Amino acid sequence: GEIATAYRQHKLISTPIVEMGAALAQGGRVRREPHHITIADLTGLAIQDLQIAKGVLAKV
């Protein structure tokens, strides 16, 4: 997807990529510092993406 392309083009700093399920399973913060950003690369049907986003927002 887009994240893999960005890595190949050296547009992203080399940081660990965490899958959404693993991030949610951690139950805590994914970002280590307040200035870090999180990118979600959602792949699937639009309705699946919507439900994932709703689940993430419910945890925030």
Topology, pairings included?
Blueprint: H1 2-8, H2 20-26, H3 46-59
Keywords: Lyase
GO molecular function, one term: ornithine cyclodeaminase activity
InterPro entries: NAD(P)-bd_dom_sf
Describe the structure concisely:
The chain is 47% helix and 0% strand. It is mainly α and 60 residues long.
Instruction: Identify the overall geometry.
Output: flat
Total number of distinct structural domains: 1
β-strand amount: under 5%
Percent of residues in helices comes to 40-55%
SSE topology string:
HHH
Number of strands: 0
- Any idea what the radius of gyration is? 13 Å
InterPro entries: NAD(P)-bd_dom_sf
Enzyme class: lyase
GO molecular function, one term: ornithine cyclodeaminase activity
EC number: 4.3.1.12
Q: Could you characterize what this model shows?
A:
This protein is mostly helical. It has one domain (2-59). 47% of the residues lie in helices and 0% in strands. The protein has helices spanning 2-8, 20-26, 46-59. The longest helix has 14 residues, at 46-59. The model has no long low-confidence stretch (mean pLDDT 78).
Q: How would you describe this structure in keywords?
A:
60 residues; mainly alpha; 3 helices; 0% strand; flat; lyase; ornithine cyclodeaminase activity
